[in-house]
Design a protein that fits this description.
Number of helices: 8
CATH superfamily of the largest domain: Glutaredoxin
Helix content: 40-55%
Shape: globular
Distance between the termini: 58 Å
Structural class: alpha+beta
Order of helices and strands: HEHEHEEHHHHH
CATH class of the largest domain: Alpha Beta
CATH architecture of the largest domain: 3-Layer(aba) Sandwich
Oligomer: single chain
Number of domains: 2
Largest sheet: 4 strands, mixed
Number of strands: 4
Strand order of the largest sheet: 2-1-3-4
Length: 190
């Protein structure tokens, strides 16, 4: 008898070209590493299915066993395990992730952040050290706001009016303002 968790994993990676096993969801990553991979995939413009391993201890443990990889997030492309956060980030920075997607025949949009190319791409590509994802509160706030506004534009919604996402953006901005204030920089954000 097959393990139901393995069956689910196999079904997900066979039914979807790109699958990200992550902590949280693409809209609300629950760890920085998952958030970095989400930003990379969104920046590249690839559609993907995010599976929240925090919803199921069986899935969280099962994916680690399935891939023989000890950490989350884990990215699969066309049924093949690609790697975790560090590998995905390095592949992206070297252009290898984009090439892998092209080689596997995975469709990507030609304009990431459609509708907000300049601001969105600038903020998503913000680098703190040699890391794509923001590491500072202010940078995280800006990237979160840019992502929220880009999602709103794509979905035809008004920014900051959709409840949970809008509230999260406001909380992140408030946290960034506190971070700036604690650093001795007085820049009111609201």
């Amino acid at each position: 008898m097959k393990d139901p968790v393995n069956e689910r994993i196999e079904r997900e990676i066979s039914e979807h070209d790109v699958v990200l096993f992550m902590k949280g969801t693409p809209q609300f990553p629950q760890c920085g590493f998952s958030g970095q991979v989400v930003q990379i995939l969104d920046h590249v413009g690839v559609g993907y299915k995010g599976l929240n391993v925090l919803e199921s201890a069986d899935l969280r443990d099962g994916i680690k066993t399935y891939s023989n990889w000890p950490t989350i997030p884990q990215l699969y492309v066309k049924g093949e395990f690609v790697g975790g956060c560090d590998i995905i980030r390095e592949m992206f920075q070297a252009g290898e992730l984009q090439q892998l997607l092209a080689d596997k025949g995975v469709t990507v949009s030609t304009s990431p952040g459609e509708g907000l190319e300049g601001a969105h791409d600038l903020l998503v590509s913000y680098r703190a050290g040699d890391v794509l994802a923001p590491q500072l509160g202010v940078a995280e706030a800006l990237a979160t706001v840019a992502q929220h506004f880009a999602e709103c534009v794509r979905e035809g919604r008004r920014p900051l009016t959709d409840g949970v996402a809008g509230l999260r953006v406001i909380r992140v901005l408030e946290a960034a303002e506190r971070s700036l204030h604690d650093s001795g920089i007085a820049v009111p954000l609201g």
